[in-house]
TrEMBL record:
Similarity section: Belongs to the thiolase-like superfamily. Chalcone/stilbene synthases family.
Keywords in alphabetical order: Transferase
Domain Chalcone/stilbene synthase C-terminal: 238-369
Protein known as: Predicted naringenin-chalcone synthase
UniProt-listed GO biological process terms: polyketide biosynthetic process
Length: 370
C-alpha cells in the first residue's frame, strides 16, 4: 500500500487541484501464473493451428500474471458457462476489494476518528462482470459505511474506466468538499477465456490478468496539508475508430476484439492530446517527470514513448506492471501510479501524466502534482 499523508510539503506556490490523494492500495489474486509455463502446458496445444501464437506470447511483454482462474486448471475440462464465470467474477471482485478498502480504512485509523462517517461517496468500476446488488453495496454493508452513502458502480467502460471513477469522485468532492471518497476498480479478466483459437484471441489471452486498486480522496486544500494532488483530467473520443476495440457479452463468455492498428491510432493523436491536458497548467511535455501509460500491449508503450520522446526510465513503471501483472483492464493505471509512488518516490512539486485507452476509441488522462 502507498500512504501519502506524510509526504513533505514544498515551499513553491501551488495551484489548487480537484482532489488530494490520501492513500492508495492494490490487490491481486494469490495465484501467480508464469507466462512461459502457461504457454507450454496449456496455450501451445490450444493455439496449435495459429503459427504466430508462440511469438505473440513471447512478445507480449508479460512475464507473470495474477489470475483468479489459472488457465492450466480452470479450463482443463472445457469452458464453463457464463453463470459460473459471473459467480467467480463477483467472488473475486469482493475478495480484492475487501483487501483494498479494508487496507485503506485500517491505515487511516478507522477506529480512531470514525473515518467511515466522513466517507460520503464510493465509486467502483469493473467491466468484467455484472451482479446485483453491485459489489459496492455489499462492501459498504461489510465495512459499516454510512447508510446515506452515495454509490456509483461503473461497468463496461473498459481499460480507461479508472478515469471515469476518478472524475465521478472529483465531482463528488466539488459538491461536498468536507467529505471523503473511496474510488477504485477491480477486474477479473481471467474468467473470460473463450473456446476461440485465432491470432486475435491469442493476443487477448497473452495480455490480460486480474487486479484491483482503491484510492481514498479528499478535496484539495490548496497545499495546507502535503500530498499528491490531481490537477485535472482530459478526455477525447475518436469515433472514426469505434471498430478498433470492442467488448461484448456472448453466450459462453465476454468477447474482446482488438485491432493491431490501435497503437498507430494512439500514436497519431497522443502528442496534441497530452498538450491539451497539461498546457492549461503552464506545462510542456518536458516539464513532466513521471509517466503512467496504460499498457494495452508493449507496442502502445513503445509508440507513446517514441512520440513523446520519453526516456526508458520514464517508461519503466508501465513496462514493469505489464511484466508482473499483464493488462488488468481498468485497475492497471492505478497499479502504475502505486509503482511510481513506491519506486520512483517523486519529489514535491514534480508532475505525472497518467493515461489509458478504451473502446470508442477513448483516450483518458490525468495530471498529478506531487
Amino acid at each position: 500500500m502507498t500512504t501519502l499523508s506524510e509526504a513533505p510539503a514544498t515551499g513553491r506556490t501551488r495551484t489548487r487541484g480537484v482532489a488530494k490523494l490520501l492513500a492508495l492500495r492494490t490487490a491481486a489474486p494469490d495465484t501467480v501464473v508464469p507466462q512461459q509455463d502457461a504457454f507450454e502446458t496449456y496455450y501451445r496445444a490450444q493455439y496449435r493451428d495459429v503459427p504466430k501464437a508462440e511469438a505473440i506470447f513471447r512478445g507480449s511483454g508479460v512475464h507473470t500474471r495474477h489470475m483468479a482462474w489459472d488457465p492450466r486448471t480452470a479450463y482443463a475440462d472445457g469452458h464453463p458457462p457464463i453463470k459460473a464465470r459471473m459467480a467467480a467474477w463477483e467472488e473475486n471482485v469482493l475478495a480484492m476489494s475487501r483487501r483494498t478498502v479494508g487496507g485503506l480504512l485500517d491505515a487511516a485509523g478507522r477506529t480512531g476518528d470514525r473515518l467511515t462517517d466522513r466517507i460520503g461517496s464510493f465509486v467502483l468500476a469493473s467491466c468484467t462482470g455484472y451482479a446485483g446488488p453491485t459489489p459496492d453495496i455489499l462492501l459498504a454493508k461489510e465495512f459499516g459505511l454510512r447508510r446515506d452513502l452515495r454509490r456509483t458502480f461503473i461497468g463496461h467502460m473498459g481499460c480507461n474506466a479508472a478515469f471515469n471513477v476518478l472524475k465521478t469522485a472529483f465531482d463528488a468532492l466539488a459538491a461536498r468538499p468536507g467529505e471523503l471518497v473511496l474510488a477504485g476498480s477491480a477486474e477479473v479478466c481471467s474468467v473470460h477465456h473463450r473456446p476461440e483459437f485465432n491470432a486475435e484471441q491469442a493476443v487477448v489471452n497473452a495480455l490480460f490478468g486480474d487486479a484491483g486498486a482503491m484510492t481514498l480522496l479528499a478535496a484539495d486544500d490548496g497545499g495546507a496539508t502535503p500530498g499528491p494532488v490531481f490537477l485535472g483530467t482530459h478526455t477525447e473520443t475518436h469515433p472514426e475508430t469505434t471498430d478498433a476495440m470492442s467488448w461484448h457479452i456472448e453466450d459462453q463468455a465476454f468477447r474482446m476484439t482488438l485491432s493491431p492498428y490501435v497503437p498507430f491510432y494512439i500514436g497519431e493523436s497522443i502528442e496534441p492530446f497530452v498538450e491539451r491536458l497539461i498546457a492549461p497548467h503552464g506545462l510542456g511535455i518536458g516539464d513532466v517527470q513521471h509517466w503512467g501509460i496504460h499498457p494495452g500491449g508493449p507496442k502502445i508503450i513503445d509508440f507513446v514513448g517514441g512520440k513523446l520522446d520519453l526516456t526508458p526510465d520514464q517508461l519503466a513503471p508501465s513496462r514493469a506492471v505489464l511484466a508482473e501483472h499483464g493488462n488488468c483492464s481498468s485497475a492497471t493505471i492505478l497499479l502504475i501510479l502505486d509503482r511510481i509512488l513506491r519506486e520512483e518516490r517523486p519529489a514535491p512539486g514534480e508532475h505525472a501524466v497518467l493515461m489509458a485507452f478504451g473502446p470508442g476509441l477513448t483516450m483518458e488522462s490525468a495530471l498529478v502534482r506531487f
